[in-house]
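Hey, weird one. I pasted the O-Antigen ligase sequence into the form twice and got a warning about non-standard characters only the second time. First submission, copied straight from the form history:
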Amino acid sequence: MDFDKLKQKVSERALDRQDVSLNPPDSGLQFEEDIFEEKLSETARSRSSAARRITNSFSWLGPALVLLAPIPFGSNRPVLWMFWCVVLFLALAIFAGAVAARDPGRSIRVSSLRGLIAIGLCIPLAGLVQLVPLGILNSLPAHIPPDLVPRRMSLSASSSLMAALRILSYIALFVIVVATSLRPDRVKSRLHYIFYAVFAHAVLGLVMLTVLGDISILGPKESYEGFATGTFVNRNSFATFLGMGLVCGMALLMDRANRRRMRRPGKLSLLSPERIELLMFASALGIVFIAQVFTASRAATASTLVGLWVVYVLMSAKARGSILRPLLRGGGAIAVLTLVAFATFGSDLLDRSLTIDSAAGTRLDLYKQVIGMIAMRPLSGYGLDSFRIAYELFHELPVSTAFTWSLAHSTYLALWVELGLVAGTLPMIAVGMVFVRSFKSYLNRTTDFVAPVATLGAIVVAALHSTVDFSLEMEANVFLLIAICGLGVANLRPSRSTKVSPE
């Protein structure tokens, strides 16, 4: 046997195997896979970018509604309710469909709010249950003939159905605002534009009161002459709208001041761009407050001052690390602001404050009768949006019978009359959940806490005023509160942009 030839063949085979290992036969396929993966990555980035553009476009819905909804009577008309229902249902459907089509793997990030949304959905569901014929639950005053007792729990089926649709549209708006508020810079930007929308209405309200000779949106006023009502009919509703905008603007102003202080410690020169910018923003806040004082709404002004105090304390506590000094300073500042407002602009407000006893007496008589209504139907209620019809069955002296009382002048009592004590408490639970979540966000965040603080302030204003008035039964005010709350409870993720506000 020729061992030299055998050794040479073994060496050649080893070299062949080495060559195969260095250049596998599917190396061309591997190269094609790399190109395919790169194309997939580019496609994913393109889809994600398209979805972000869609999200950014729909994030303008909140500020747009805050600007447009108050123009026709605060949107407090059935035809306007249905119009906004169509707009919001279509907006949610188009938004969800467009995101799903552009980026199928992308989800609308509201999963952490499922409990809150579920409670919200139970409210219109309770209204629809009232349309079921359950005559056994329809207890009414003894003087009502049995033949006139309706078969349904709701005394006005059409009103209850319309109200259920309206509440569903509120949930649609909330979902859109939360789903489009993922980036801190976008949240702060939209919060700014919400305040600018309220500021625009404050300016318009003052112009309509003074320059244009105290007119309403349709011309000469039929009521509330001499008071700022803006495009609303009722001055108290306009005052609540301005109050929620004020606390939003206060949070933004203090956020600007705190960020300026961190960037450039020390005092600013009088004519520095930062100082001028802060002064201009503070002037805008002052104009909104002046407009609210000219509404002469006692409860709304008091509620707003409490809301401003809450915002000041929370923002100062984050900036300075202590809460006692902000509590005292804020209380003193609110007291001074109150005195200045009364002395300079608030003669009408002061006059109305001096007559608060007689007004309180009338309200207390009304509330006693309303509580009697609740006691007769504590669980079933009289039907969503059925207060006007239901109250006429109980209306008697000493409450004036000179005109029809279409509202309970307390949103809490109105909810319990219309939905009963159980279902009527659900809206309060939902707002309470938003308050708690916003407060937790405020405590846990070291930055980007201005939206939760604005939410807390807006809820304080709305909740306090709702005890003695019906401002949250005006659709434009509900849109404003939902737009602020949606920004406050949103799940933020880090922004790729360094821009923090539309300054």
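That's the output from the first submission. The warning seems to come from a hidden character in my clipboard, not from the data itself. The longest strand covers residues 215-216.
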